[in-house]
Design goal:
single chain; 67 residues; mainly alpha
Length: 67
């Protein structure tokens, strides 16, 4: 997409995040979520919902708050 000068939008980023979470690529999904903010695109509520739902589902938060 970038090679063809097509700017990804919030739907593109959210779809990528959802796909990465489905295959348990949490770091890549988190990177995409952070890329949304850096690119100046305003995330939808669904973007946050997908992220939080999957963090809870895979117990990601336990790894980071048990320390």
């Amino acid at each position: 997409m970038i090679r063809q000068v097509v700017e990804p939008n919030v739907v593109t980023y959210t779809s990528l995040m959802d796909g990465y979470f489905l295959v348990k690529e949490v770091n890549k999904a988190t990177y995409v979520f952070n890329t949304i903010a850096r690119s100046g695109v305003i995330p939808y509520v669904q973007s946050y919902n997908i992220t939080l739902t999957n963090y809870v589902r895979i117990k990601w938060w336990m790894k980071h708050f048990d320390e």
